[in-house]
Amino acid sequence: MRPIVKVEGSVGKMVLIGQFDFNLHKEFRQASQELLDTPDVQEIQVDFDQVPFLDSSALGMLLLLKERAAGQKKTMVLVNCREAVMQVFEIACFNKMFTIRPAA
Protein backbone atom coordinates (compact mmCIF):
# COMPACT_ATOMS: atom_id res chain seq x y z
CA MET A 1 0.00 0.00 0.00
CA ARG A 2 1.22 3.49 -0.84
CA PRO A 3 2.20 5.67 2.12
CA ILE A 4 -0.31 8.39 2.93
CA VAL A 5 1.14 11.90 2.65
CA LYS A 6 -0.31 14.79 4.65
CA VAL A 7 0.97 18.36 4.84
CA GLU A 8 -0.05 20.59 7.73
CA GLY A 9 1.74 23.92 7.67
CA SER A 10 5.48 23.30 7.82
CA VAL A 11 5.11 19.61 8.77
CA GLY A 12 4.86 16.92 6.13
CA LYS A 13 3.79 13.53 7.43
CA MET A 14 4.19 10.19 5.71
CA VAL A 15 1.96 7.51 7.26
CA LEU A 16 3.21 3.99 6.59
CA ILE A 17 0.75 1.10 6.69
CA GLY A 18 1.78 -2.55 6.99
CA GLN A 19 5.20 -4.12 6.65
CA PHE A 20 7.94 -1.67 5.71
CA ASP A 21 10.30 -3.63 3.50
CA PHE A 22 11.81 -3.63 0.02
CA ASN A 23 8.38 -4.15 -1.56
CA LEU A 24 7.49 -0.59 -0.51
CA HIS A 25 10.63 0.93 -2.08
CA LYS A 26 8.99 2.58 -5.10
CA GLU A 27 5.99 3.94 -3.17
CA PHE A 28 8.19 5.22 -0.33
CA ARG A 29 10.44 7.03 -2.80
CA GLN A 30 7.46 8.69 -4.52
CA ALA A 31 5.94 9.80 -1.20
CA SER A 32 9.34 11.06 -0.02
CA GLN A 33 9.81 13.06 -3.19
CA GLU A 34 6.38 14.62 -2.77
CA LEU A 35 7.38 15.90 0.69
CA LEU A 36 10.83 17.01 -0.46
CA ASP A 37 9.28 18.92 -3.37
CA THR A 38 6.85 20.83 -1.12
CA PRO A 39 8.61 24.13 -0.27
CA ASP A 40 6.53 24.83 2.87
CA VAL A 41 7.56 21.53 4.49
CA GLN A 42 10.43 22.06 6.94
CA GLU A 43 9.97 18.88 9.01
CA ILE A 44 9.27 15.43 7.63
CA GLN A 45 7.60 13.00 10.02
CA VAL A 46 7.53 9.31 9.16
CA ASP A 47 4.65 7.73 11.12
CA PHE A 48 5.14 4.09 12.16
CA ASP A 49 1.90 3.65 14.13
CA GLN A 50 0.60 1.00 11.71
CA VAL A 51 3.94 -0.71 11.00
CA PRO A 52 4.40 -4.11 12.69
CA PHE A 53 7.71 -4.95 10.98
CA LEU A 54 10.58 -3.39 9.05
CA ASP A 55 13.70 -4.87 7.48
CA SER A 56 17.19 -3.67 6.60
CA SER A 57 16.09 -2.24 3.25
CA ALA A 58 13.63 -0.01 5.16
CA LEU A 59 16.53 1.26 7.28
CA GLY A 60 18.40 2.13 4.09
CA MET A 61 15.38 4.00 2.70
CA LEU A 62 15.14 6.03 5.91
CA LEU A 63 18.85 6.90 5.82
CA LEU A 64 18.57 8.02 2.21
CA LEU A 65 15.54 10.19 2.99
CA LYS A 66 17.35 11.74 5.96
CA GLU A 67 20.32 12.58 3.74
CA ARG A 68 18.11 14.09 1.03
CA ALA A 69 16.07 16.06 3.58
CA ALA A 70 19.24 17.44 5.19
CA GLY A 71 20.43 18.54 1.75
CA GLN A 72 17.30 20.71 1.58
CA LYS A 73 17.67 21.93 5.18
CA LYS A 74 14.62 19.92 6.31
CA THR A 75 14.52 17.92 9.52
CA MET A 76 13.25 14.36 9.83
CA VAL A 77 11.52 12.68 12.76
CA LEU A 78 10.37 9.08 13.21
CA VAL A 79 7.08 9.10 15.15
CA ASN A 80 4.63 6.67 16.79
CA CYS A 81 7.19 3.86 16.86
CA ARG A 82 5.91 0.67 18.45
CA GLU A 83 8.08 -1.57 20.61
CA ALA A 84 9.13 -3.99 17.83
CA VAL A 85 10.08 -1.09 15.56
CA MET A 86 11.93 0.66 18.41
CA GLN A 87 13.97 -2.51 19.01
CA VAL A 88 15.10 -2.57 15.38
CA PHE A 89 16.02 1.12 15.55
CA GLU A 90 18.02 0.58 18.75
CA ILE A 91 19.90 -2.40 17.31
CA ALA A 92 20.75 -0.33 14.22
CA CYS A 93 21.74 2.66 16.43
CA PHE A 94 19.10 4.81 14.72
CA ASN A 95 18.35 6.34 18.11
CA LYS A 96 21.70 8.13 17.75
CA MET A 97 21.07 9.34 14.19
CA PHE A 98 17.36 10.24 14.28
CA THR A 99 14.89 11.94 16.55
CA ILE A 100 12.53 9.09 17.45
CA ARG A 101 9.21 9.49 19.24
CA PRO A 102 7.71 6.25 20.57
CA ALA A 103 4.01 5.48 20.34
CA ALA A 104 1.99 7.01 23.18
Explained architecture:
The chain is α/β, with parallel strands linked by helices and 104 residues long. It has a single domain (4-102), classed as Transcription Regulator spoIIAA. It contains 3 helices and 5 strands, in the order E-E-H-E-H-E-H-E. The chain has a 5-stranded mixed β-sheet. Strand 4 (75-81), helix 3 and strand 5 (99-102) form a beta-alpha-beta unit.
Assembly status: single chain
For this structure, the CATH topology is Transcription Regulator spoIIAA
Mean pLDDT: 95
Strand order of the largest sheet: 1-2-3-4-5
Secondary structure class reads alpha/beta
Strand content: 25-35%
What's the number of helices?
Answer: 3
CATH superfamily: STAS domain
What is the global morphology?
globular
User: Helix fraction?
Assistant: 25-40%
CATH class: Alpha Beta
Number of strands: 5
How would you spell out the order of helices and strands? EEHEHEHE
Largest sheet at a glance? 5 strands, mixed
CATH architecture: 2-Layer Sandwich
Termini gap: 24 Å
Uncertain regions spanning at least 5 consecutive residues: none
Rg, rounded, reads 12 Å
Instruction: Count structural domains.
Output: 1
Domain STAS: 1-104
InterPro entries: Anti-sigma_ant, STAS_dom, STAS_dom_sf
Pfam family, one: STAS
Family: Belongs to the anti-sigma-factor antagonist family.
